[in-house]
Amino acid sequence: MSWSVVARILFVAAVGYSAFQVTPFPIGAWGNAAFGALLGSLIVAAEMRLRRVSITALLAAVIGGGIGLGVAKMLSAALYWLDFHDSRVAFLLSLILLTLPYLGMVIGSRRSEWLEPGNLAALFRGPAPRRTYRVLDTSVIIDGRVADICETGFMDGTLVVPQFVLKELQMVADSSDSMKRNRGRRGLDILQKIQKMAGLDVVISDRDFPEIREVDLKLIELARALGGKIVTNDFNLNKVAQLRGVEVLNINELANSLKPVVLPGEIMKVFILKEGKEYNQGVAYLDDGTMVVVDNARKLIGRTIDVVVTSVLQTTAGKMIFGRFIDPATATQPPAARPQAPPAAAAAAGK
Q1: How sure is the predictor about 230, in pLDDT bands with cuts at 50, 70 and 90?
Q2: Could you tell me the sign of the dihedral formed by the alpha carbons of 147, 148, 153, 155, in that order?
């Protein structure tokens, strides 16, 4: 048993014993002891809940509550001309004294980032260019393409890796499933690679939102608090973030926009890998993963052929190209000569 558990038990016992000795309520000594023990347990539960809150959030809540209490006292003093013996006036003053400190505590805890050392130091420095933040999602870290984008210099600003994302990566890396375990370890390796890149600012954020369970919603709230953008390749997170007014950088959309433009009528050389779903179709893939569906190519599996593009279909999952294989022998063969009627038949037709 740890010392913290012992300290909590002793505290509850001390509160109960104090109530047993003082007996503040007319419910008997043991009734007061039970009430004191219950009150001590509630205080311990509140203490355990507050352990998850950061020091800056607690300090901001105390400052906000103090400001709210000061404003409430000023309003109460300004209303000296009211009749304090009226029950409605007494309730109004009580409501002011309770509401303003509460609002100050809530607003102060939600704006606790202003008490962080970096933001406090910025108040005493001259104006500097505003930092832009890019919050990385778990899926985009495991995907790995973000490291290549960062290496080319196209990812600007400060990359923010939340602590809850690292925790999720660690859970995936410790999974009993070998595939999930490999994905988690790959994500951790990608993070180490990004951190070692020169000229790239990577920050591990300890800010958390205990009242929110879902990691995606925590990412949205963190990006909103920092005024940054979420870097992801998750389609659902992309839509939810846009609905909540948070900008998103989608790696899949970037990859689709960088694929070469193919127009109908162009000739391209592809390798037929497998047969298609429809009759006499073959399927090929470009170097970037784009699927090419070729008509009249089912018998050409395992060969590299020239196809003519007939249409291009852009979907949310990517781009699909449809083409048609034209057999060179059939294309260059002269049209068949019309059969000539025998001379006798021609003479009979003339008559």
Answers
A1: very high
A2: negative
DSSP conformation class of 137: P
Assess contact for 63 and 108: CB atoms under 8 A: yes
Average model confidence (pLDDT) across the chain: 81
Q: What does residue 10 show for φ and ψ, rounded to 5 degrees? A: -65, -35
3-state secondary structure of 261: coil
Structure tokens at 209: 């939102």
SS3 call for 315:
strand
Q: Locate the domains of the chain by residue range.
A: 3-114, 133-256, 267-332
How much is the pLDDT for 332? 47
- Write out the two tokens for 179: 């595939």
Instruction: Please list, residue by residue across 80-94, b when 16 or more beta carbons sit within 10 angstroms of its beta carbon and e when fewer do.
Output: eeeeeeeeeeeeebe
Q: Which residue has the higher pLDDT, 125 or 201?
A: 201
Question: What is the spatial distance between Cα 313 and Cα 337, in angstroms, rounded to a whole number?
Answer: 40
Q: What span, in angstroms and rounded, lies between the C-alpha atoms of 135 and 250?
A: 12
Q: What is the pLDDT of residue 284?
A: 92
- Topology (CATH) of 267-332: OB fold (Dihydrolipoamide Acetyltransferase, E2P) (2.40.50)
3-state secondary structure of 144: coil
User: 273 with 283: CB under 8 angstroms?
Assistant: yes
N residues, the chain:
351
Show the beta-strand stretches assigned E in 187-246.
201-205, 229-232
Please write the tens of the pLDDT for every residue from 186-197. Answer: 989 998 998 888
**Looking at domain 133-256, which CATH architecture does it have?**
3-Layer(aba) Sandwich (3.40)
**What sections of 79-116 are H helices per DSSP?**
87-110
